[in-house]
């Protein structure tokens, strides 16, 4: 039995050509559909086609306006032509205006009467104010005549009767005055380190809150100057910035001077307190010393009284000697009391000298404060004058900027007028109403059809071959079975 032959191959080239011809025909139909003739109240839009030798089609769009629209278009074109001619005529005015360039107003005419910045800030000079007296007052100048207590008692009287023995006269006053201690001759000194430390602390405290404010003022001034068009490096910018920095420097100088005054006042207070303590201690020592001498005299007086009682029994023999002894002892005590009084007087004069020195220093400090206050008032007046100058300068600059802008506007007026004429009414074409364009539709796809047909025929041929092979196998099996049976 025959297996059959394969089907013939489809004509793929012919199918592709047929598909291309169909697509081209549909494209031409779509183009023709998108070329409608339109008729509106403003005019018409029509299309004409001309076939070409190569098979293509040329299209021409003809737009015809209504008589009214055509007349309006002609008028607009005439207006535009007139504007162009007018602008051309104005070019001469523009060229004449700009031939010599822009001449800015004279700034000097606006700055007349504006005072200059007073930068002659004088340093602080406290003329007529005495300096602090830091000299050391030597106590020896007031107590140098003090010769000390006479501790060696000698009497011109003869020896007393020894049978009238009693307590011995105390001839050593140190036993009574040693507890008073010695006079402190080392007066306290003015401590410059305390004044310096006080000055540094006062200056740090007074500038601690102003440092950030000074930085912010400088930054604000920079922003303000930049807004005014003044940049770093220009004279106006540098002058304004230097004035601000100068004012801040003057404020720092004032704070520094005030800090020096505060430090000196603190040191003077400590110095006066130390002097007061020093005087009080010496006064207490003198009082203790006098009390010791009084006790010394009282003890000797008691001994003398007891001794007199003991001598009463030997009065006949020793009365003259006892009387002389008493006179000598009284003279001895009187001398010692006079020496003690001289020491007390010297210490009192020494304390008065220290008090006078302290009063003088306080008066000098007060005079210094007054001079510094007057200096601050003068400096503030100068700062106020400079602030008024800055205000006058700013007003003059504002007037100058206004005049500058007016002059520049007048300078550009011919050019702006010419541009206004050129950018006037323009000619516009009337718009035709829109429409929905036809979409593209491809032609019949012969290539895909031919491919599908070829696949189908191949499948049929394969199935026929399979059926033929199965039939032959069945016949062979039956033949073998028959042969076995026989």
Automatic annotation (TrEMBL):
Give the residue ranges for region: Disordered.
Answer: 1-59
Protein name as annotated? Uncharacterized protein
Low complexity composition bias: residue spans: 40-52
């Amino acid at each position: 039995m025959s297996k059959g032959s394969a089907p013939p191959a489809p004509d793929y080239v012919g199918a592709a050509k047929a598909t291309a011809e169909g697509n081209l025909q549909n494209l031409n139909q779509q183009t023709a559909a998108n070329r409608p003739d339109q008729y509106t109240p403003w005019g018409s839009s029509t299309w004409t086609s001309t076939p070409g030798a190569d098979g293509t089609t040329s299209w021409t769009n003809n737009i015809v306006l209504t008589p009214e629209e055509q007349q309006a278009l002609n008028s607009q074109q005439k207006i535009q032509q007139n504007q162009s001619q007018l602008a051309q005529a104005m070019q001469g005015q523009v060229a004449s205006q700009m031939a010599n360039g822009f001449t800015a107003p004279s700034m000097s005419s606006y700055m007349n009467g504006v005072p200059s910045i007073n930068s002659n800030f004088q340093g602080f000079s406290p003329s007529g104010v005495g300096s602090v007296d830091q000299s050391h007052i030597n106590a020896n100048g007031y107590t140098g005549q003090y010769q000390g207590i006479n501790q060696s008692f000698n009497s011109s009287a003869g020896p007393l009767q020894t049978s009238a023995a009693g307590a011995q006269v105390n001839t050593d006053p140190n036993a009574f005055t040693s507890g008073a201690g010695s006079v402190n001759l080392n007066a306290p000194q003015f401590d410059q380190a305390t004044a310096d430390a006080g000055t540094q602390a006062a200056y740090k405290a007074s500038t601690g809150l102003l440092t950030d404010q000074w930085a912010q003022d400088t930054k604000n001034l920079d922003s303000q100057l930049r807004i005014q068009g003044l940049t770093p490096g220009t004279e106006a910018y540098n002058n304004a910035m230097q004035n601000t920095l100068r004012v801040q420097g003057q404020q720092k100088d004032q704070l520094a001077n005030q800090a020096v005054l505060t430090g000196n006042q603190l040191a003077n207070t400590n110095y006066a307190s130390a002097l007061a303590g020093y005087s009080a201690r010496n006064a207490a020592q003198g009082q203790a010393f006098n009390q010791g001498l009084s006790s010394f005299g009282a003890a000797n007086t008691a001994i003398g009284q007891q001794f007199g009682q003991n001598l009463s029994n030997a009065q006949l023999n020793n009365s003259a000697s006892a009387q002389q002894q008493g006179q000598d002892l009284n003279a001895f005590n009187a001398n010692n009391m006079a020496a003690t009084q001289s020491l007390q007087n010297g210490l009192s004069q020494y304390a008065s000298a220290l008090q006078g020195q302290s009063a003088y220093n306080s008066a000098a400090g007060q005079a210094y404060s007054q001079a510094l206050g007057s200096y601050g008032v003068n400096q503030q007046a100068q700062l106020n004058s400079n602030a008024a100058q800055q205000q006058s300068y700013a007003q003059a600059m504002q007037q100058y900027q206004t005049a500058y802008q007016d002059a520049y506007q007048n300078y550009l007026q011919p050019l702006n007028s010419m541009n206004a004429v050129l950018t006037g009414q323009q000619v516009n074409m009337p718009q035709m109403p829109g429409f929905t364009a036809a979409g593209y539709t491809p032609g019949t796809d012969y290539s895909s059809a031919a491919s599908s047909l070829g696949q189908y025929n191949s499948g049929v041929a394969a199935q026929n071959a399979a059926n033929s092979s199965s039939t032959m196998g069945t016949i062979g099996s039956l033949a073998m079975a028959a042969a076995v049976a026989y």
